[in-house]
């Protein structure tokens, strides 16, 4: 009689452990994916506009929030030709599935290709623009 009860109890314990591990894995993976894709940006366009300074241009970036949470100005970083300057670009808060436009406060040389890197908490997007 003890052998039969021990087998049933062992089976129940193994099932409880398996269900617990599966639940823990689900919670972990769900949280990981939520944080990974919640603030995803996409650069729709990068362009140059002549500035008031001779042979200099301002860079304008149009980007969209393809994620599920708001992205604030402080969460976005823009590097032009690998350099970050402050303040360089000022963005408004970008709601999910919306776009925003920002123009550089600094000027950049004309007749040159500039590499623009925009980073959010979830991803980075690199573009090139001829000024």
Structure description:
Helices cover 27% and strands 34% of the residues. It is an alpha+beta fold and 131 residues long. The chain has two domains: 1-37; 41-130, Immunoglobulin-like (Sandwich), CATH 2.60.40. Strands 1, 2, 4 and 5 form a four-stranded antiparallel sheet that branches. Strands 3-6-7 form a three-stranded antiparallel sheet, with no helix packed on it. The longest helix has 36 residues, at 2-37.
Précis, in short:
The chain is α+β, with helices and mostly antiparallel strands. It has one helix and seven strands; from the N terminus they run αβββββββ.
Short key terms for the protein model shown above:
single chain; 131 residues; alpha+beta; Immunoglobulin-like; 2 domains; four-stranded antiparallel beta sheet; three-stranded antiparallel beta sheet; 1 helix; 7 strands; 27% helix; 34% strand; rod-shaped
Tell me the name of the CATH homologous superfamily of the largest domain: Immunoglobulins
- Whole-number count of domains: 2
Largest sheet: 4 strands, antiparallel
Task: Output the radius of gyration.
Answer: 25 Å
Mean pLDDT value: 85
CATH architecture of the largest domain: Sandwich
Order of helices and strands: HEEEEEEE
The third-level CATH topology of the largest domain is: Immunoglobulin-like
User: Which range best describes the helical content: under 10%, 10-25%, 25-40%, 40-55%, 55-70% or over 70%?
Assistant: 25-40%
Number of helices: 1
Number of strands: 7
Low-confidence stretches: none
Q: Identify the CATH class of the largest domain.
A: Mainly Beta
Structural class: alpha+beta
In terms of DSSP E residues, the strand content is 25-35%
Distance between the termini: 86 Å
The general outline is rod-shaped
């Amino acid at each position: 009689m003890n052998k039969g009860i021990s087998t049933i109890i062992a089976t129940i314990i193994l099932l409880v452990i398996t269900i617990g591990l599966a639940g823990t894995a689900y919670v972990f993976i769900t949280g990981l994916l939520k944080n990974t894709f919640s603030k995803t940006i996409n650069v729709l366009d990068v362009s140059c506009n002549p500035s008031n300074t001779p042979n200099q241009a301002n860079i304008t970036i149009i980007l969209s929030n393809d994620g599920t949470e708001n992205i604030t100005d402080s969460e976005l970083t823009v590097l032009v030709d690998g350099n970050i300057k402050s303040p360089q670009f000022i963005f408004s808060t970008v709601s999910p599935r919306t776009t925003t436009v920002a123009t550089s406060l600094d000027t950049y040389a004309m007749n040159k290709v500039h590499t623009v890197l925009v980073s959010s908490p979830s991803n980075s997007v690199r573009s090139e623009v001829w000024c």
